[in-house]
UniProtKB/TrEMBL annotation:
Protein name per UniProt: Gene transfer agent family protein
Domain of life: Bacteria
Source taxonomy: Bacteria, Pseudomonadati, Pseudomonadota, Alphaproteobacteria, Iodidimonadales
Pfam family, one: Phage_TAC_11
Gene source species: Iodidimonas gelatinilytica
């Protein structure tokens, strides 16, 4: 697995005590839109302060970049890990990922 590339929109953060690597590829974004919601509606919801744990879990699931021999956790397992971590750090990662998808620098930097 290649390491994270910030200019590509990659995000790495601690989720339930383990590093969690997110990469927003075209395939990942397409799966999110097919199975959950349009990316731009998720961006708008986040901008309006209406982020749901389910939204984060779905986006994290589809953007998860697994290492060799590593499986991507289910949406439910990621949701459980978000709750176990507390919402603050996953919310920061979610906002950074959406900013990267839009091609904008993360405002928290």
């Amino acid at each position: 697995m290649s390491g994270p590339v910030k200019e590509r929109g990659d995000v790495v953060f601690a989720l339930d005590g383990e590093a969690f690597f997110l990469r927003p590829t075209f395939a990942a974004l397409s799966r999110i839109e097919q199975n959950h919601a349009p990316i731009l509606s998720l961006v708008q919801k986040a901008g309006d302060g209406h982020v749901q744990v389910q939204d984060m879990a779905v986006v994290f699931h589809h953007c998860h970049k697994a290492g060799a021999g590593e499986a991507t956790p289910s949406i439910e397992a990621i949701g459980d890990r978000i709750v176990a971590t507390g919402l603050l750090e996953p919310l920061r990662a979610y906002r950074a990922l959406l900013a990267g998808i839009l091609g904008q620098p993360d405002a928290s930097d």
